Amino acid sequence: MDSLLSLMTIEEKVGQLVQYSAEVRGRGEGARLEEDQARLVRSGEVGSFLNGVGASLSRDIQTIAVTQTRLKIPLLFGSDVIHGFRTIFPIPLGEASTWEPDLIRKAARVAAIEASSAGIHWTFAPMVDIARDPRWGRIAEGSGEDPLLGSLMADARVRGFQGEDLTRTDVLLACAKHYAAYGAAEGGRDYNTVDISERTLREVYLPPFEAAVRAGAGTLMCSFNEIAGVPGSANRHLLTEILRGEWKFDGFVVSDWGSIGEMQNHGVAGSLAEAAALALPAGVDMDMESGAYHGHLVELVRRGKVPREALDESVRRVLRMKFRLGLFEHPYRGADPAREKRVLLAPEHRKLAREVARRSMVLLKNVGSLLPLRKGRVVALIGPLADNGMDLLGCWAGNGRGEDAVTIRAGLEGALGGTGSVIYAMGCGIDSDDRSGFGEAVEAARKAGVAILVLGESAAMSGEAASRSSLDLPGVQAELARAVAATGVPVVIVLINGRPLTVGDFEESGGAILEAWAPGVEGGNAVADILFGDYNPSGKLPATFPRSVGQVPLYYNHKNTGRPAQSDLHFTSKYIDLDVTPFYPFGYGLSYTRFDYSAPSVDRSVIRLGDSLKVSVTVRNAGKVPGEEVVQLYLQDVVASVTRPVRDLKAFRKIALLPGEERQVDFAVTPDMLAFYNLSMQRVVEPGLFNVYVGGNAQDVQSASFRVEGP
Fold first, then answer.
1. Stretch 256-261: mean pLDDT, rounded?
2. Any catalytic annotation for residue 256?
3. Please, what are the domains in the chain?
4. Which residue in 233, 494, 595, 673 has the most C-beta neighbors within 10 A?
5. Quick check: 701 and 599 in contact, CB under 8 A?
């Protein structure tokens, strides 16, 4: 690598750090790179493209790089493969609801197989931002509010994308994003300011990034936002001191789209050249789309404004990843039109997508065991998302197509077969005030034994630049639900959405509510599997559902305050017009059976610093059908040198139990689970009392205690 570096001119070195979105003429196998960009490739002025998708197109572009340039350095092709390429899985927030990292690793593996066949080497995923504010549209792309769950999902996705050998032609280079704390944007407004303490940064927002690095992620993407006055694209503390100094990361960092140039808007750079001079020394190796490096870095290096050593180190990092991917030996890797046609939407991929989708869905309500439904009946299917394929795919749907998706209408009709029938009425639009379809919907309900309402958000209502000031159902959907419920027909509500919603306006209209998120190409089949009892729901919420947007941000691992909320005491931390508790807590999810928990026990009431202990709980399936439960363990450090959360998730296990079966679940509580950053920002375990909480969600738990004694 260093021998190659020694042959390169400054212009060629800078070229390796430049990424542009491919500008393409033509379509399909006839697509070609526009000549202006082809000239950049020939002159060595670009090292990577994003959006150059397709086996034939990527091979054509790569041929220019490896046959018509002086040094024959291959290009790196990247793309946003977030929750599937052509086989679209549930949005990542939905995938996190499975609480099954190994299953999500398999989903990422499928995405890598498909995307690599289309010439993609590198995915801008996983997004591992912790999000405590559901107004933020990009909550859909991550794993919710908890650092442990987020870290385990980050690890799983990195390993699924990259596999064990980056030279394999069916894997993708992973990119953990957005480094860091992008999910803490003020007001839930995308790209907005972040101002948090170093302690909160390290305890809440950085752990999933560190987990991604430990799993071997080859790249990270810096964030749009600032933290404490420093934009992510110039944050040396994050990019160099922590990432490379503390974590020993040896991959490279890419900017987010145009984020280097946006430092002018932040007010820390007066020109694109000044922005480039800030970004590269801070640790941003590749410039996505701003043109700052392409237009100014050569001159900055020649004038001594940017050290030549910093340029060489960034180029070395990019070349290192190209070598690790085997691009110098196999520049076309898995890009093969025949393979592309063979693997996209392969039957085994769709089968896994259905499995992930149904395991991602969370049963929020089921009064009187309304669900599961029996199949031999007339069903009214109502709502703007009931016969809608594209919106089932959710935001960042890669190369997914609406016609690939099994709609909920198709899924129900397929499940019923000849044993029943579906009467369909749309009722209203997703975000419309037109009530003219209400009458047809009410009439459909009256003709049926049960009404299934499919309500929620369009795919465009979550994701990037899709923040919402309201968490209510858009348009007149809640009114539609109340109109149908007024018929007296039993109502099941299926939610399709990219964020936690405030359900109070329509919750009483449904005897049962199923949170299906945006479930992907097999969404309709997965919903039918659950509604008709072919699968017993086992999903748990990875993010809190508030009662009102006025509670936001609302998250389970909050601090206690000096005056914890007490309904009977006025001068405590609460609202005068709303209960302070969530509508549905973190970790919540029902089943068609019931699980009874014993009180947890600890094998020792006192341990020494550095010791571990065992926590045990017995869980029993007290119902009549087999089911799965996510057993969750939380800890609280009761008195410490700095304030600690009321509880923190430290371990969980998903278990399957037959009717009447009971099982003892054991958890090892290790010193690392007890550690935190003290007043001196050292990670320590302090002597004192700890509470253990175990249950099926963060709120409904039983407790035990133990004490840690010093030396």
1. 98
2. yes
3. 356-551 (3.40.50.1700), 595-709 (2.60.40.10)
4. 233
5. no
